[in-house]
C-alpha cells in the first residue's frame, strides 16, 4: 500500500512561529502558519472584560510583529506551547498591584496589552528550549539515534519593528535577529542586532510598559 504524501505545510509545522499583535489593544496571538486562522487565533484570547474578544480578526488592526525560524520542528512546537502558556498566566495570574485602584475598563486594557510580555516570554522560551535541545544532543551523540543540536544563528527572529526586541532583558547568544523582509521602513537594515546595552537594554520587569486608555 502506497503511503499518502504529507502536505508540506504539515510536514514543516513547527519550523516557524508567526507572532501577530493588535495595534489598538496590543493583544498578541501566535500561529504556526503565516496566514492567521480566525477561529484558532480567537481561542487563544482570554476574556478579561467586555469586548476583549472580537467576533472576528480585522486585518486592518492585526499586523505581523515577528516571526521565528527554527532548524527543526520539535523545538518550534515546544516554544509555541510555552508562549501560549506564559501568555495565559499573564492574563489570569497577574500581580494584584498591576490593576489595583483601576476601573474595570482600565483593568481590561492593561490585561489585553501583552506585547511587552510576549517579547520577554519569547526570549525566555528560546533560551530554555535551545538549552534543553543541546543538552539532549550532548547526551545522545554517542548513541544510534543522536538528537540534533542548535547551532549559532540557526534560530532566527525576524522583527517588523526591530526595537520591539528591547522588551526582553536578555537573548540567547545563539539566536540571530534581523529585520523582516516585508518591513520597508528601514533604509539600511542590519543583518543582526548587536547586544549593545542601548539596543537590547530591557525594562526591569516583563510587565506591560504602557497602559492603553479608552
Description:
This protein is an alpha+beta fold and 214 residues long. The protein has helices spanning 8-11, 38-42, 73-92, 104-112, 115-140, 197-200; strands at 16-22, 28-31, 62-69, 155-159, 175-179. A five-stranded mixed β-sheet has the order 2-1-3-4-5. The chain is globular, with a radius of gyration of 18 Å. The relative contact order is 0.15. Residues 183-214 have low confidence and may be disordered.
Give a short overview.
InterPro entries: Ribosomal_mL67. This protein has helices at 8-11, 38-42, 73-92, 104-112, 115-140, 197-200, and strands spanning 16-22, 28-31, 62-69, 155-159, 175-179.
Q: How far is the N terminus from the C terminus?
A: 61 Å
**What is the overall pLDDT average?**
85
- Topology order in helix (H) and strand (E) letters: HEEHEHHHEEH
Strand content: 5-15%
What is the tally of helical segments?
Answer: 6
Structural class from helices and strands? alpha+beta
Residues in helix, %: 25-40%
Global shape = globular
Q: Major sheet: size, sense and barrel closure?
A: 5 strands, mixed
Tell me the radius of gyration: 18 Å
Query: Strands across the major sheet, in which order?
Result: 2-1-3-4-5
> Low-confidence parts lasting 5 or more residues at pLDDT below 50?
183-214
- Please report the total strand number as a whole number: 5
Main features:
6 helices, alpha+beta, disordered C terminus, 214 residues, globular
SSE arrangement:
Blueprint: H1 8-11, E1 16-22, E2 28-31, H2 38-42, E3 62-69, H3 73-92, H4 104-112, H5 115-140, E4 155-159, E5 175-179, H6 197-200
Parallel strand pairs: 4-5
Antiparallel strand pairs: 1-2, 1-3, 3-4
Helix pairs in contact: 3-5
Amino acid at each position: 500500500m502506497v503511503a499518502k504524501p504529507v502536505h508540506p505545510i504539515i510536514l514543516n509545522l513547527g519550523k516557524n512561529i508567526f507572532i501577530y499583535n493588535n495595534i489598538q489593544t496590543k493583544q498578541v496571538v501566535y500561529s504556526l502558519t503565516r496566514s492567521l486562522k480566525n477561529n484558532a487565533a480567537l481561542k487563544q484570547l482570554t476574556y478579561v472584560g467586555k469586548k476583549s474578544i472580537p467576533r472576528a480578526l480585522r486585518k486592518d488592526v492585526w499586523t505581523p510583529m515577528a516571526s521565528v525560524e527554527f532548524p527543526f520542528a520539535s523545538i518550534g512546537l515546544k516554544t509555541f506551547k510555552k508562549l501560549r502558556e506564559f501568555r495565559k498566566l499573564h492574563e489570569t495570574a497577574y500581580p494584584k498591584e498591576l490593576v489595583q485602584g483601576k476601573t474595570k475598563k482600565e483593568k481590561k486594557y492593561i490585561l489585553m496589552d501583552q506585547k511587552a510580555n510576549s517579547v520577554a516570554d519569547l526570549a525566555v522560551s528560546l533560551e530554555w528550549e535551545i538549552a534543553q535541545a543541546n543538552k539532549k544532543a550532548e547526551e545522545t551523540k554517542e548513541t544510534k539515534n543522536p538528537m540534533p543540536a542548535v547551532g549559532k544563528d540557526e534560530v532566527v527572529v525576524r522583527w517588523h519593528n526591530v526595537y520591539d526586541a528591547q522588551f526582553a532583558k536578555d537573548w540567547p547568544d545563539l539566536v540571530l535577529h534581523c529585520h523582516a523582509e516585508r518591513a520597508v521602513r528601514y533604509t539600511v537594515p542590519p543583518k543582526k542586532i548587536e547586544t549593545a546595552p542601548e539596543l537590547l537594554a530591557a525594562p526591569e520587569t516583563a510587565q506591560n510598559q504602557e497602559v492603553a486608555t479608552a
